[in-house]
Amino acid sequence: MKSAKVLVALFLYGCYMVRECLQHDNPEPVKTALLQTWAEKLYFELWNCGEYITNRKSLQSKYNKEAKLEGRNGHILVANISSVIKSMMDKKQQSLKRILESVEQVAVSAHNDAPPGDEYKVRNAKPNKATPHTNILLNDLKENSHFYHTPVNATYSSVHIPTYVYDRASDVIKALKWSENLDVAFRKNYEIDPRLSWQYFGSTTGFMRQFPAMEWPDKPDNTEDLYDCRMRPWYVEAAASPKDILILVDNSGSMMGQSKIIARHVINTLLDTLSVNDYVNVLVFSNVTNEVVPCFKNLLVQATLANIRELKLGVENIADPNNISDFSIALTMAFETLEMYRERNMGAMCNQAIMLVTDGVPENFYELFKSHNWKNGTMGMPVRVFTYLIGREVPEIRDMKWMACANHGYFVHLSTVEEVREQVVHYLPVMARPLVLHQSHHPVIWTPLYADVTDPKMTDYLWEKEECQQQYHDTISYKETKDQFFYPKNKAKRDRDRKKKELNQNLNVNRQKKHNLITSLAMPAFDKKTEMNITVRRLINDNYWVWETRETKVAHLLGVVGTDVPEADLREAMSPHILGVNNYAFIVTNNGFIVTHPDLRPVFGDILKPNYNSIDVTEVELVDSDNIARVFDRSILTLRDYIINQTTGDREITVKYHYDDMRRATTAERHYYYSIVEGTPFTVVVALQEKHFGYRVKIPDRFQNLNTTRSSLLDYFKDDEWRIHPDWLYCRYAYDDGDDTSFKTPEDELRHFLKRIAKTDNTWNKWPPPRFYSESYDSKGSTLPEEKFDGKCYCDKDLMLSLIYDANMTKGIFTEAKNDTEKKKNPAAVLMSLLPRTEFEKRFGVTLAFVATHSGLTRWMDYEDKPKTPLNSDDHENQQPHFIDENVYSIEEVWYRRAVEYNMVNDESYVYSVPFENENIKSTLVTASQAVFVTSKENKKKGAAAVVGYQFRHSALQELFLNITKQCYSETGCTPAKDTCQSIERDCYILDNNGYIIASENVMDTGLFFGNVRGPIMKMMVKEKIYNNITIFDYQGVCFKRENEDDSNSSSFLYTPIHHLKQLIGWLIGRVLWLAAHSNFQWMMSQAQAIFEDVPDYQEDEESVYSADTLANFKIEGEKALKYVRINRTRPKSCDRVVNLYTLTSKIPEKVEHKSMCARPYELRKIMNTNLILLVVNGRCPETTKAENFDTEPKEVDYEEFNNSLNCHKAFYSLPRRRPKTACIRTHPDEHEIYDKMCGKGTITTVTPITLSIVFFLCLIL
């Protein structure tokens, strides 16, 4: 009996398996009629909810009633912008000339003055770093919005003195004294041009005088202040004409120990004194000569930050000293390389120099110099030679000094590391001698974009600091949680957090707030005194010396004067509100580098990228082609040539571009208009999508003068639920000099000016525009009038009127009567209007409605009880940020751009989105937005006026999606057990137009890219052209190289002399942390928590999830635990990344013939008037469950030809450039008259108290 039951059971099981196999071979097709019904029901619910909440049709009707359109003329726009920027630069240049004249005049008058005594005090910007008796306190510093909200005093200047410059040295203190007189010129400039930024004078002695006075910002973690104005781009470029530099470093057996360390510091300091208009390479020689970066062979590379970094890394990798140096081969190779660049008109095409770093030479190489550098006599030598003698005990300096003096160079003897930075920069005044001797010519230079006072070399340090903090938190977490630290959930969270940090590279230039990005104008200041008396010792006979005084020629550089132009001012000058959404303008230098561009992304996290200021125009304007990385299309290269050669014209190119953190992409045809900014190396380019965004909204006549609306201005802004674009200038006071002109928020500032406008008649029309100086510019180039700006404030009238008009249009848009006649025509809307508010919220989960306009106004209304001032909310840690906290940039917001863009596909469509990979799924919100266009009655042209939208809870959409897709309708032939989404045979999804999951049966899929979840299905949809692939190259990427990875061209970090000590200390700390993790050192934990408050919280109990045996596998102890707790150290490096993104085709092929049902195991339908599709996957088809990676994460591009080195690839395939138009002044016939004793000097070794203390400390511990 029992055996019979077993046989029956086996028979039934076999029948079941046969049935299952047959079903897999012949799965039921997805019912397209049922799918269509579901899609229509989803559309009905979503559409009616959106129309009811946003009141879109009412707003559209208002705009269409009286607003007009005007076309955007690219030629006029680019001409206006370039004219405005020219006027801006001319005004700054006139300010510089006034400072320059003052510098040269007061320097001459102070020539015979004795250095001030000990009683002299200076206004030191670093009061905590110097002794009190030498400083005057900086009093009455007030925060000023014009200077990045820095506390300043605009009645006097302050000085910054580098740490290693002795501020009581006679030449320093004398220059400090006479330069106080510059305050008169500084104040006058500020009175004439209230939009002038920082003004400064950098002295050759090392200090920088800056106006207005400020306290120098503290360095992070109290690190040493390394700022030296003589190594900043504005000083370096102005001090001398562009230069080709070849650095020769001796690596013979004698260059061991301290000599090698000093030599490396010399090279690094020399590299720090170069700018992007210079070219450089470093050669290391002993018995053979090689480049420190092998792929830079026979090249001079442009001195960009990325190339300088590569050279420094190469210097760190120089092999241990050995053999005997062959100076002849090294010098010959250097001269031949420089000669090749002269003959081929490559490189800087101006100055050339050889920097020789060694501990001694066997001879003076007279014959070599004669054959290579004196072909045209010593008057016309093309190459200067600078020599740096290393070491304390050197047998002879005569040959080294002769080599420098005979070749118009400079000789320095260095015996300690501390003196390197101060002594190396002496070559700059020598390179400047021809400029000084010409006297009358003061070239004006404009720097590329750079970060204010931030040292770009801090990138490695700041990233290392972040990793140290992460290591600390991981160790403390392990101490507190023990085995839970290794639970898969906790480990996965740590991995996700680190990955997010590494991928956080897409913060564009106007959203990052930590670094003040600027370009600077600068001019060299010359000592007018061309002769001076010197006392020398002369040999009368074999053993009798006499002292005598003689007059000699001199050519002294006093320093450099400069002023900044913030990148934000350049963006403002481009009038983004006139260009409109999805149109933009940008600026390019003579090198092809970007100064400002909406896709310039200079930071990752809060750290500057290694190559942030050398991004080429071809790297941000991506042509829609199938070319591989860095094979740029001919069309963009032609456009680039026109731009860098400063021509005027236009070209059309089809491009592809990304947005939304490089998760979405699309293509468009852009029309580029370009025009020169005369007298500068800059070219302005305007990019318009004329086909779709060629028109802008023009306000009606009744708003032009506010004659009928002035009394009601404040009524338009009565409530607090609105914001304006924080970076746009509506109205502003010229000087932020008190409480009456300083405002906490842009909204407070706007209210203030609205009150002023409402109280006046038409006097506000007389307020000058933000670019008031353009009206006083004389196109013939004459000097601008030195008149004080007599206006108290200025306004952008066009923008202000547009804002007021939009405020009038959108006032009360969300609170209009619910019995509107238009809504009564829609039964569903009538039903919604009858629902109580609580029922409505429960049904649709609406939390907020919003509208943003082309003038920068954003309004919102909360449907939940939230603070009316979300920006001031104190409790941010336990709740998601309010919508308005992160969405105040109106036309620049992603939801605004997408809504306007998608209007070209469907002008009735709402665009839906959810956060990507959101971990807190319970609080996830869906954002829906739709564009409001003004349509011309005459020619049917359209212009974007606003975008309306709302947010609602994803849980409501999830419930709606599940409820609809579980329904079965008899007329569709549906079987509930097989055809609905509740069946195991069907998997259902709502995807957006870029392939991201909006809703799924598994709620944890929300926000994921569909290819990550169902790779094979996504691959099929791409193959069938349902989604189009768009390949995006990110040429601004940062990749993270592990410390232990091999790299023939670089080391792990730029090691300093104390780095090995750091490694020893790090090892000791690691052992202490390991002991702490296995001990009860409560005192240690309490101290740690007092310092670091953000200790990870692992309160969730996973023991209920895993079995005891599984939990035992997570127990890792001892040295093995320490290994897993230790993070993988990395170093950031510039890299190219590639990502494949996807966009839905406008016409979806719904019916495709296939041989079998599983050849296309899915069906889909467009959800009408949305950017969504409803996708049903046939779960019976085995192909749907295959694991196949199909993601949208960027991946590094490998350049195997150059050992995966991006910098080597760029150096070999360098793009053309145009040298600056400033005159190349590299020689002067009188230079040989300068007394030869002024071509160099040795140094006297002194022991400072700090050095003595260090030595004493080392003696104690060793």
From TrEMBL:
<dbReference type="InterPro" id="IPR051173">
    <property type="entry name" value="Ca_channel_alpha-2/delta"/>
</dbReference>
<keyword id="KW-0407">Ion channel</keyword>
<dbReference type="Pfam" id="PF08473">
    <property type="entry name" value="VGCC_alpha2"/>
</dbReference>
<dbReference type="GO" id="GO:0005245">
    <property type="term" value="F:voltage-gated calcium channel activity"/>
</dbReference>
<keyword id="KW-1133">Transmembrane helix</keyword>
<protein>
    <recommendedName>
        <fullName>VWFA domain-containing protein</fullName>
    </recommendedName>
</protein>
<keyword id="KW-0107">Calcium channel</keyword>
<keyword id="KW-0812">Transmembrane</keyword>
<dbReference type="InterPro" id="IPR013680">
    <property type="entry name" value="VDCC_a2/dsu"/>
</dbReference>
<keyword id="KW-0479">Metal-binding</keyword>
<keyword id="KW-0851">Voltage-gated channel</keyword>
<dbReference type="Pfam" id="PF13519">
    <property type="entry name" value="VWA_2"/>
</dbReference>
<keyword id="KW-0472">Membrane</keyword>
<dbReference type="GO" id="GO:0046872">
    <property type="term" value="F:metal ion binding"/>
</dbReference>
<dbReference type="GO" id="GO:0005891">
    <property type="term" value="C:voltage-gated calcium channel complex"/>
</dbReference>
<dbReference type="InterPro" id="IPR036465">
    <property type="entry name" value="vWFA_dom_sf"/>
</dbReference>
<dbReference type="InterPro" id="IPR002035">
    <property type="entry name" value="VWF_A"/>
</dbReference>
<feature type="signal peptide">
    <location>
        <begin position="1"/>
        <end position="23"/>
    </location>
</feature>
<feature type="domain" description="VWFA">
    <location>
        <begin position="244"/>
        <end position="428"/>
    </location>
</feature>
<dbReference type="Pfam" id="PF08399">
    <property type="entry name" value="VWA_N"/>
</dbReference>
<keyword id="KW-0813">Transport</keyword>
<keyword id="KW-0732">Signal</keyword>
<keyword id="KW-0109">Calcium transport</keyword>
<keyword id="KW-1015">Disulfide bond</keyword>
<dbReference type="InterPro" id="IPR013608">
    <property type="entry name" value="VWA_N"/>
</dbReference>
<keyword id="KW-0106">Calcium</keyword>
<keyword id="KW-0406">Ion transport</keyword>
<keyword id="KW-0325">Glycoprotein</keyword>
